[in-house]
Amino acid sequence: LYRDARIAPIYEGTNGIQAIDLVVRKLPLGGGEHVHGYIAELKAVANQVRTSNLQGFGRTSDSLDQALDDLGQATRFLQGLLADGRSD
Fold first, then answer.
1. Is 8 part of any domain?
2. Model's pTM, two decimal places?
3. Structural domain boundaries, residue 61
4. Virtual CA dihedral for 14, 67, 62, 48, nearest 10 degrees?
5. 41: annotated active-site residue
6. Above 90 in pLDDT, residue 26?
7. 88 part of a folded domain
8. Which entry of 1, 8, 12, 71 is annotated as an active-site residue?
9. 49-83 b/e with 16+ CB inside 10 Å = b?
10. Quick one: pLDDT at residue 82?
11. Are 32 and 25 in contact (CB under 8 A)?
């Protein structure tokens, strides 16, 4: 248990570095069009799931659609901060 507890700060540090890389370097790529294009692809998948009319997938696609809307909103917010020079 002690050994596992000692490794936790390393995991936390690497996760933080990856998060910073995502927000500061990856989101602005292509003017943000890469990430918005990916979100659009995922929304198309959610729509395919919805139109498949398979039992139980309607709620799943609704949840996925809501999550993708939230992701798009958060992405636009972060891109706005970066555009204002606020990357801290």
1. yes
2. 0.72
3. 2-83
4. -70
5. no
6. no
7. no
8. 12
9. bbeeeeeebeeebeebbeebeeebeebeebbeeee
10. 87
11. no
